[in-house]
Amino acid sequence: MKKIIFLGGSLFILFISFKTVFAQMPAETPPPEERHEAQVTAILEEGENEVGPGVKQPFQKVEAAISEGPLKGQKVEAQMGGLVLTNDNQRVKVGDKISVAHIRNIDGSEQFYVADFIRTDSLYLLMIAFLVSVVAIGGLRGLSSFIGLVISLIVLIKYIIPKIASGGDPVFIAVSGSLMILIASLYLAHGFSKKTTAAVLGTFFSLILTAFLASLFVSASKLSGFGSEEASFLSMFPGMQVNLQGILLGGIIIGSLGVLDDITISQSACVFELKNANKNLSWKELYIRGLRIGREHIASLVNTLVLAYAGASLPLLLLFTLNGGEPINVLLNREMIATEIVRTVVGSLGLVAAVPITTAIAAFFNRK
């Protein structure tokens, strides 16, 4: 009976959380053209366009039936590759669901082009498969952790992003928002216990250390926050007054949180299991044995973090490699590369520090 009540309450919280996320998301800035969902009914023309010396891209003219909005049911001719850069992976075929951009020119003429594919169906299917697998394997704990994930999204969308967008201090907002996410996600996923509390405290102190190191090395490296194309666009957004260096710091802090809570809960659980196996272990013995286990965890997680950042930056690394093969000192000095190095190493330092910090707290909770 208790499990049924818990399951019902969890599903209710999940429903309210999703409603909050999707119903109260900030309104998007209206695009310069109208977008319509459509389905490709015929390929009218296909070939290649030359967009530069020796550079060609695919071109298509397709017939598409608009499936929503005021033009629903109308068939239009839309171009793919005429106005924007494309590649062979963006070729469409009959039956594909696409997003069609509708442009009204000053002379009164109209123009349609293929803006993108419609991916929402596959994304919804993926999210449902994720939820079902988490609940099927993790049971009520899995459902609770999923609710914690939804709460994390709410904090990100309703607190962190709006506060930074309104000109608040990105570092303080990132740390305080991360604390909200940390408490909700860990206690929901692992229950209210000393083990979870040790992990929460270990993550919090490690996060503060990560924030300090990020501030120190971002300042020492003279990183401006303009290390990405998105940051440049953000700085030109009308009425947007943001601290790009602060946003970089906030991103490092939030990015580290996801890996920190994994290592801290594992480390805390190890110490508590050691105590359960031998009640006579002292604080010092628990700390030494727990630290021994943590060293193995550090080796794998640091490698995971470095590879994750390298994978995300792979197109950038390839671009620099193909662009004449710059000397390594010149390459490392570029802000885009230096930003990723600082992000990776600072995050790794936070992970390394999390092991002794969490082990010490968990051992203290299990002292005689």
Description:
It contains ten helices and five strands, in the order αβββββααααααααα. Residues about 1-30 have low confidence and may be disordered. It is elongated. It is an alpha+beta fold and about 375 residues long. The protein has two domains: about 35-120, OB fold (Dihydrolipoamide Acetyltransferase, E2P); about 165-365, Multidrug efflux transporter AcrB transmembrane fold (Up-down Bundle), CATH 1.20.1640. α2 crosses α3, α3 (about 170-190) runs parallel beside α6 and α4 (about 195-220) runs antiparallel to α10. It has a five-stranded antiparallel β-sheet with strand order 3-2-1-4-5, with no helix packed on it.
Spatial gap, N to C terminus = 37 Å
What's the total count of β strands? 5
Counting DSSP H or I runs of 4 or more residues, the number of helices is 10
Q: How can the largest sheet be summarized?
A: 5 strands, antiparallel
Strand content: 5-15%
Strand order of the largest sheet: 3-2-1-4-5
- Number of domain units: 2
CATH architecture of the largest domain: Up-down Bundle
Q: pLDDT under 50 segments (min length 5)?
A: 1-31
Helix content: 55-70%
Average of per-residue pLDDT values: 78
CATH class of the largest domain: Mainly Alpha
